[in-house]
Queue: 3 jobs
Job 1
Amino acid sequence: MNQDPSAPEQPSVLVIEDESGTSDMLVMALRFLGFDAHLVSTGDETVHEVRRRQPDAVLLDLALPDLDGTELCGRLRAAGIDTPVIFLSARTAVEDKCHALAVGGDDYVTKPFDLTEVSARIRALIRRARGSVRSAPAPSRRLCAAGVELDAGTREVWRHGRAVPLSATEFALLKVLLENAGQVISKAHILDTVWNYGFQGESGVVETYVYYLRRKLGDSGQSLIRTVRGAGYIVHADPVGM
């Protein structure tokens, strides 16, 4: 059957999962939802397969038989591969989520999960990754607050003059906070703006990313990103003229 050249290109996803029943069902479901999904069952194959297939996103199980998922993600990043990675795991502890994000993961979904939500998260990450690669360079525009500078054109961040490397998701989160400096931003607004899907009560991913963003920025005392209990987060704007 010839493929219609005018049909939209299917986003490609590489699934790294060793449980045969789960992995086969996941791949089939993703294909049904419009993804070009393929399976890799061991960590050792992953770097080679990511280079060969060049997927738009990777779904990575945290517990693989031959390699821990976080170690594997670290290998991908060390190899210069910046493909968005979504971790799949039954572990729900904040420490596990933060460690997964620290090694270069872009999102973290706990099992059991809803496939519609996973699909939405994959598409959101792909849109953001494609936008950062394909968009024409934007004019230099710096956002500043509490010793942090963010250049929206070059996608660079500094804290007190020190460069701070951030993932695409961390950068997007910091950008929306700085753009709204002086205002309380709800978790629902952050989810909708950064992750591009409607708020449905799952705010844990926002809390996890804020926690890790604080660590990267050296904001353990929350002098930059302040939590407003029951409302959201606020970054206090610098006084005019500073």
Job 2
Amino acid sequence: MVRSDAVAAVAGELFEDGWSKIRGAGVSARSQGRRQQQIARAARGHAPAVFKPVRGGGCRTRSQLGNQLTYLTTKSSHIIDSRSQYDGHKTLNDKQISDLVERFAGNWDRATPKLGHTTHMIMSFPIGTRGEDVRDIAGDICENFFMQEGHQFDYIVAVHEDRAHPHAHVLINRRSAEGELFYFGPDHHFNYDDFRMAMVETAERYGVRLEATRRLDRGVHTYKPADKEVYKSKREQRGVQERDRRGSDHARAVADIARTSSLYRALAAEASAENRGDVAKALKQAAELLERGGQLKSDGEIYMAEGQSFEDMTGRFSELAIRAQEMVEQAEPNRRAALERELNDIYAGVAHMQPLGPNSDRLREEPTETGVYSEINIRRGNIGRLSGSDVRGRIEAAVQGTSISADDVVSRLEVGANNAALERQWMSDDLQKIAQGEGLDLDRRDHLERAIERLDSIHVSLGQALKDADIVRDAGVAEDREELTEIGDRAGVTANVLSAMRRDSAIDPFGDATERQAFRDEIEDRLSAEELEDLRAGKENVLGDLSDNRLDRLYAVKAYLQSDETTANSPAVNEIVREIADTEIDTMRERLAETDGEKGETHG
């Protein structure tokens, strides 16, 4: 039961957006500097960098690997080999493919990992990119990622020019020379964003104009199409239909695009101040296009005509902020909170540049009235009472058994959070410390719920201790608060069903027939007749107002379809089951790897 008002506010955001979109202050200065650079590139017509791990592309047997290599290396125009054996070849013959299969398989374990012994990735480039440049860019990227000290992986790269967009297929043997098993993870040294950025930065050395923005940064409201739609459109020889956002999911996307439009305008002003009129014009036009509901498109120019230095300007703030963040991280614990507030004040002064990404609006908002870290709630005149043994003892008792430091709590109280961003940063830091201490993965909803319950208990204890000592005005405790339900899970039955599905999506999530009917009623009350038809066809996007989490929407569709015998065994159910399996692999790859012992040796 959540009883701390301040924790309840943060919990709502976490359940709505997920931990990966919150993470304390949210976004590092380095990543925001990168984002600003990429936005400037998109405004000037650079083409999106397309990097894609192929779903289900891992090989489990020698036969599968042989078939895959035959496809990759007999249609290719360039080959790159991590061991240089086949460098310079255009294609490989049957004997070379067979030798390569044995080379890869010789490093395989007896047991087959869930994701296969290999990983297949594709880097796609704009129409008109020279094959030699695709080869060199992909080769440099693979050497940088897969031939590092401590990360020595065997791989083969095959460049294909048989389609409009030249592309490089990368097939990596997942077990490294050091015993590490390759996988993608959001906070891992191998992650999707770093590969896209590497494409942009490496391509620039060869004069190729790429950018690495999000779809929303370009004004694209829709989700990428599902694989089945891509294949179906090819069979039917028509354009691909992307997946629409619905309800609150669509509303959040519109708000995100509006914030991005404001950032384009802020960058345009910075470019004007730097006498970069051409860049300022492009950024201003991009802002206007997004405000009209349009989408940024590549201008079709592949190669750079001249040196482009605006990224240097957009990076200067990032570099200064990074140095400031490093100073904060290296500071003595008793100084860290004060430095965090100073850095936060700097960010507040440039909030229009969105230094914290989507969370930058919090820089202009006041903290909560009742949070223990809130400057509004702290009685400055009584702060000296923190040194009293009784108060100190109660603070230590509140955080006992967690990785939260009592010294950090005291330092934050002495400084006080003067805006919502800093208050949430400190509370989210507490949440992360709880997760670290208890081995929780905050990207998992069930683990997130457990961590929030613990955070609530701690902040309730802190609030009561500080109120008793008259250090805060309000303990921020609501005694009779109803049980927390996730934002989007507006009714209890739906919340219970989703919770059961998250634990095991293969079980019947209903306790009895009454609960089954109540769930159907709750779902049907949300939807129009047309949307219900889409739901029965297995279209999860009609539940955009239920949750921003696609996996939760898929769970809800499966539960709904299987709650009625007329749809329980329909083709739509089979498709949803497959989508759930694929999505769990895509969004929880790191968790699956850990559960299966696939991570191998950890580095960095």
Job 3
Amino acid sequence: MNAVRQKFSSQADPRLLGELRAIAREEGRQFQAVLEQALREFVERKRDATPRAEVMAHFQASVEKNRRLGELLAR
């Protein structure tokens, strides 16, 4: 089953595009597939790099709760 694709136009460093084309050629894949994989991995990495708000709230609460302990351990 093929996913729906949306065409778009952009510009990129010619060397970077050349590297992507070389990877596609070496792996026997279509350029489009390699580009989509690169985009997907980039988005996932960016999304996963930001802690969720509730995680940060718990972290901040823990820091506040244990501030005195942190000060004592820092001596």
